[in-house]
Inverse folding.
C-alpha cells in the first residue's frame, strides 16, 4: 500500500521536507490533500483519535500515524534503508535534522513574529525588525553550522556514500533561502561551498530531477514558510 | 561513568527537560557547567569537532554526544528502559515530545519576538502583542492537545503504568506556564484536569520530590525560557 502523506495542498511548507526523500527514493505515496482537497485533510485529522497529530504533515504508514518532520524522516530512513548504519553518525544526522526544524521555525517567525494566526500585513514592522536580525545574525550562524557539517564527510553527502533525508532537507533549506532572500543569499553564498555543492548533488538525483520538473512540486509562494517579500531582503 | 550534561548553569531553560528524567530515574550525571562554570561549557562546545551540537543542551553518554532535547530524551528512555515498549505508543510519545519542543519555542518567542540576541526591554511592544495571541490562541490550542493526550491512557501516566520522559516534560510545561502566566493559568487550569493530575503525579515521584527540594533545581528566573513579566499576564 502506498503511504498516505497528509499536508496542506497549496504550499511546500514543512511537508516538502517529507515529499523530497519520498521522491528521491521512489517510494510510493499519495499526497492526500492534493488529490482529495483540503477539507479532506481537516476531516482526516479528526478521525485520528487520541493519537492525532498536533498539525500536518503526518504520514500514515499503514500501521502507524507519525507526525513531526524529523520524526517522520527518521522512521522513513530506517524503514527504507536510507539512514547511516553507524549509530553515532545516525544520531548526528537526526540532530542535524532537528536543527533544520529549528531554523525553519525561525524562518517562519521572520514574517510572522507576532502571531501565526494573523496576516503578514498586520505585522510588517515587526517582520522588518525580525528579518534584519535574521539576515545579520541567524542566517550566518545556522549556515556556518551546516557548512561545517558538510565538511565532516569526504564524499558528496552528509554521511557515507549515499544520500539520506538530511541531504534532501539541506537542499530544501538552500532552495528556500534563495527564494526568500535572493539578495542576501547572493551576498553570502560563496561562504558555503560545501552546502551549495550538497544542494547541487541532491538536485541532480534522478528522482529529484523528475520531481522538480513535475507538477507535484508546488512553486514557492507567499502562503508557505519561505516567502519572498522584497522589503525583507537586503544583501 | 556518569553522563555529562552540558547546559547553561543559571537557568532551567531547555536543559531542565533533560535534568528532570535523569533525576526521576536516579541516573548518575554531572551538570557540567554548574560544577565547572559557563566558560567550561563554551570551551567544551569547541572541542566537539564536526559533530558539535548547534546549541546546549547536549549529553555526552561516554560514547556519543547527543543534542536536541527530544533526541536526548528518546535515547535516554531507550537506554534506561523508560520508554513505552509498544512501537506505536513509543512513536506517539516522541511526537508529543517534539510538540512540547514547538510550544517551548513559541514560549520563548513571547518575550523575544524580534530577536533572540536582543534584550526583552528592546522588544517590549512586540512582546505584548505576541503574548496577547499566545494567551488567547496558542495556550489553549497546545493545552487542549496535551489534555487530550492524557486521556488516551486510563492510568496515571501518558502511556502504560509508569512514567516516561514525556511525563516529566509535561510537568515542566505546566510548572513553567504557571510561573510565566499565573493569572492566565489560574483562569484556564480547570479545563485541563488530566494535565494537572499528570503534573501532580510527576511532582510526587520520589526522585522529583528530592530534586525540587535540592539546590540542583534552579529557580525560575527572567533569563530562562519561562519568564514572569506581569505586563504580559492577564486572565
Amino acid at each position: 500500500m502506498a503511504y498516505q502523506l497528509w499536508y496542506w495542498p497549496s504550499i511546500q511548507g514543512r511537508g516538502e521536507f517529507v515529499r523530497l526523500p519520498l521522491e528521491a527514493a521512489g517510494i510510493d505515496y499519495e499526497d492526500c490533500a492534493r488529490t482529495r482537497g483540503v477539507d479532506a485533510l481537516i476531516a482526516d485529522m479528526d478521525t485520528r483519535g487520541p493519537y492525532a497529530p498536533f498539525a500536518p504533515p503526518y504520514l500514515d504508514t499503514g500501521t502507524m500515524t507519525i507526525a513531526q518532520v524529523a520524526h517522520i524522516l527518521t522512521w522513513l530512513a530506517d524503514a527504507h534503508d536510507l539512514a547511516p548504519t553507524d549509530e553515532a553518525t545516525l544520531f548526528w544526522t537526526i540532530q542535524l535534522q532537528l536543527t533544520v526544524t529549528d531554523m525553519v521555525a525561525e524562518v517562519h517567525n521572520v514574517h510572522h513574529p507576532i502571531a501565526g494566526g494573523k496576516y503578514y500585513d498586520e505585522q510588517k514592522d515587526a517582520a522588518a525588525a525580525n528579518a534584519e536580525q535574521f539576515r545579520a545574525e541567524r542566517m550566518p550562524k545556522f549556515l556556518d553550522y551546516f557548512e561545517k557539517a558538510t565538511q565532516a564527510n569526504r564524499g558528496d553527502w552528509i554521511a557515507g556514500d549515499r544520500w539520506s533525508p538530511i541531504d534532501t532537507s539541506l537542499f530544501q533549506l538552500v532552495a528556500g533561502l534563495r527564494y526568500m532572500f535572493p539578495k542576501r543569499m547572493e551576498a553570502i553564498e560563496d561562504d558555503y561551498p560545501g552546502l551549495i555543492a550538497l544542494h547541487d548533488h541532491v538536485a541532480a538525483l534522478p528522482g529529484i530531477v523528475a520531481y522538480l520538473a513535475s507538477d507535484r512540486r508546488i512553486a514557492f509562494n507567499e502562503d508557505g514558510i519561505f516567502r519572498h517579500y522584497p522589503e525583507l531582503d537586503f544583501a
